[in-house]
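@channel sequence for tomorrow's demo:
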Amino acid sequence: MPRLPFRPLAMRRSLSPLCHPVSPRPSAGPKCPSTNHANHRALSSHAPGDTFRAADLVIQPTSNPKPKPDPETLTFGNTFTDHMLEVDWTSDGGWGAPKISEYRDLTLSPAATGLHYGIQCFEGMKCYASGPGSADPGALRLFRPDRNMARMNSSMGRLAMPSFDPPELVSLLKTYAALEREW
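structure tokens (generated this afternoon):
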């Protein structure tokens, strides 16, 4: 299969109506939900209102920011920002309050079902900074977050994982992107 050429900047500019601007100031993710077999089917039937709220966000900024790497040396899956977004879920309480905190390793029980059955959901939404020639240089934009969140919720349902309210997660991601602006 032939590789598609990289689209020139002029073509990418035409996609701007699909992008959502990110607020310049931050206004506060997810451990993998664990389930037992009795709850397996019930998770995908959660109502969209049974979700976390961006208004409940707690931000705990890092006290030890990492030096920013040269953008030319960034490697996907190897370069990480200073923070992470978490929203815990339990079968008893549902979604907890969202939190942005210092990037750190996760501690998992060896009994975590994700380790045994490999249940996970990944959505690779992109965030772009406008270039120097744009009308709003340096502005951050999330590319098609509504479509990314719809795909993620669809995947969550297929995996019998709890759903969420997409605009709430987009709001959290905008806050996260503004906090990590320098990255």
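heads up for whoever presents: The longest strand covers residues 83-86.
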